[in-house]
Amino acid sequence: MPSFHTKTIEQILDPVAQQVSVLVVLHEASEDGSAMPDLSGQISAVNAAVQNLVKVGRDTTNSSKDAVLKQDMPPALVKVEAASNGLLEASVMLRDDPYSMPGRKTLIDGARGILGGTAQLLLVFDQAEVRKILRRCQGVLDYICVAEVIEVMGDLVTFVKNLTPGMTGMANMVSARAKELTFQVHRELLEKHLDSVKNTVPLLVSAIKITVTTISQGGQGLAEAKENRNYVIRKMSYDIREIMRVLQLTTYDEDDWAMDDLTVLKKAQDNITNQMARATEWLTDPNAAPGGIGESALRQILADAKKVADRVNEPYAGRIKQAVEDLTELTDKLADLRANGQGKTPEALQLSHAINAKLNALQKLVDDAVQDAVKNGTGKPANTLTGKMDQAQAWLANPSVNDKGVGRKAIEGLVAEGRRVAQNLSGPEKRELEQLCNDVDSLHKQLDALIRKGQGNSPEARAIRQQLAMKLQQLQQKIEKALANQVVDSFMDPTGPLAQLDRAAKAPADAPNRQQTYESKAHIFLKHSKQMTDTAHAVAAAGSCPDKKIVGELNATANEVAEMTPQVVNAGKILLMLPENALMILVIPILALMEGAVPLFKGKIIYAHVPKDIRVQPAVKMIPY
To answer: Distance (Å, rounded) from C-alpha 368 to C-alpha 375?
Structure first.
């Protein structure tokens, strides 16, 4: 049984799963010819509990206004009830004949049916609860767009008055849902984006107020004010959409990055197999509503198939990707038809039949691709610099082994990483790294040419392999050292340009050359911010950290700072033109930028990506923790 994604489902199904396990053990123990014990008492208790569950389910269905729940709940109830009746039938058969093989089979089938049906029933109800939260989130998402048309203070007051209850309700529902989830990563994502939304609300009100004030004072700085406001709207909208995305997750695959490819492939293959029945039921039922567990199962199959395509060899990868694209397009059309009440039209019926056939073909294609990967490997280079280095050295040690081109791809990846890092360097350091990349590339091509001629083990080839192995080690060391130096250069004074921009924006109105000074400081600030974010991305791509979570946080924070940087410049420019608005302008955006940048240069995120043997320069110790 898979992991349950909510504590409620887990608490209900765990005891059921344990009881099923007991019955399976009893069944297996009696296969040696022993008689099955009388289980009529236990089965009667189970049947009573199932009948109560079915009654609650039907009452919920009758009172609910959720069309999808009304569609998905009855089949789950029927499945549970049929399984319970099967258990009763099995108890009678085994009571009359404790050695009855049909009775034992019926018992196991009934027990498993109750477990599967109860899981489906709880999932239907859980998704209905999720849809309630999604509707509240969508309402807030739609309403914050009203901020774009607010031009007078009275409208702002009305906007805040209307937004507050919706935002409070959404926050309470999302917070409660986060506490209910069993996957820690999902809880953390919900809490992270919810906190961001809460922190952005006062920033949104301030941005709207700035726009309204700018309009009332003649429009000077209006373009910058609107861009600030629109940025805040985009940020809040992104966080709400991320909340909505995470709310709909029922499985956790974030650790795929740290898994080997075959493990990921087999996991995706199992997921597809487990979802096929629900997807097929949805396709063959013309009355099935869109958005239910059947369509969700189909969408999940496509997502898992794409995951397989990303890790298998050609021609399977291309065929699976094309099949996923075709099925996605057809599924979208079918869902639209059913949403418009046209599920029984000839077009919809033909679509569902075509999708079903293509889905079965996709499953067969995935099975063949996974089987090929198990037999021949996946031919994919590692994610980290160290991993690529290991793959490259393994191939150089024995190039006659067919590694599906992994060694060659790893070398190409190392050269690409080196050239990417060199782009942010200058002077002798840049030239040395670029020359090393060229040397590795040239030696790799020479060795490849010899191997193609059947001379991979010739004295010349062995000499090139030794030289290439040495050059690769030098390249790795150069990249790591360059990254360490780049971190030091970029984060030696992370807040200095920001503080200078702040002072320039707040210069007295009679200060000479205010505009020119501000433009100069803004240019320095933009350049420095880009340098920090470029360094962060370079460390994430070519650093030695194997933890995907840390790499993801680093990239996400760098993106946030990059997006926020021009808004700080805009806010400063408004303050420069309208110094009397100092209480409303600049302070919040600058603080927000500082808060967003802190994980980049204050925590251990970047420092963790610098190898310990490179941490020898005294300047590195100046990076604050």
So the answer is: 11
